[in-house]
Amino acid sequence: MKIAYLHRLTFDESEKRFQEEAVALGVELVPVKYRKLKVVGEKILFGEMDMKEFDGWYFRSVGSELEWSKLLQLYARKHNIPMVDEYLKTEGPLRRFKSVMSWQLTEAGVLYPKSAYVESFKDLEKELETWALPVIVKLSAGGRHGRGTFWVRELSDLEKLKRILEGRKEKAKLANKKIPIFRGFLVQEYIKNDGDYRVMTVGYKCIGGFKRQMKEEKLILNKSQGKSLGIDLPSDVMETAEKAAKVLGVEVAGTDLVRSTETGKIYIIEVNEAPQFKVFEKRTKINAARKILEYCINKFRSHCELRSTEAITESGIAASPLAPRNDDNL
């Protein structure tokens, strides 16, 4: 079996783990960067290889590659290519915006903090005049490791937030990088809690999780900080995480949840696509990379077997469906 591992940036630890498990499972995992793709006529090519020659696609990350993800979505539909995550074949990458996520979860009846979405920083300042503080403010387009999530305890924190965002623009300018445009803010009610749960689901099923204790309250909420506790997850935490992933069509998800200390109810804080799993594996001793690849293999198997049958018919050469193929025989 040959799987395309679509990614935007190279996270060495994650890619290394996936490659290790791919070798152990006997599958060929081919890293494909979006910027290495090209469209020629009605084909999408990676080098000289047609992307439809893969048995399935695993989108490890999408990020800002909205154009390529849409082109690949159309190509996958045309050629019935199985892919993970499923949401990329329906709503597409725009579902990744936190405003869209909050809308879908609320409509589906999943408990989600009271929220508001505003377009500009000026609108944000006006909106917060009517809110009880503290609140959480998120950049709707997101940011890795909590860089797009901010803790606002009082209105004066907005000036600090403005300076942080301006500083990021200046840093990008000095580095000759694309200057970010900060627009689209999601305001989220703060749910009092004694720590948040991080739950990982694969194929909409919980494979494990842990609880992070309350960490120091800073303006930027870096989700990678805070002491973690290995625990048996409560059933309502697992069920809520599974439901949220299913509603959003995120087959591989890292979901943050909290239990309200006032009502005891479980709230979804965020559902993360393509979650990092270094801390998860360390805390739970669960092989997340293997779980993800095993899920991909099972999902892609029927397509792989169909392609192998076609190859046998065309060439008369039998091949094991899970073995790396010799594309010259195809």
TrEMBL record:
Residues covered by the ATP-grasp domain: 102-297
GO molecular function per UniProt: ATP binding; ligase activity, forming carbon-nitrogen bonds; metal ion binding
Taxonomic superkingdom: Bacteria
Keyword annotations from UniProtKB, A to Z: ATP-binding, Nucleotide-binding
InterPro entries the record matches: ATP-grasp, ATP-grasp_RimK-type, ATP_grasp_subdomain_1
Tagged with keyword Protease: no
Gene Ontology cellular-component annotations: cytoplasm
Name of this protein: ATP-grasp domain-containing protein
UniProt source species: Candidatus Collierbacteria bacterium CG22_combo_CG10-13_8_21_14_all_43_12
Lineage, uppermost ranks: Bacteria, Candidatus Collieribacteriota
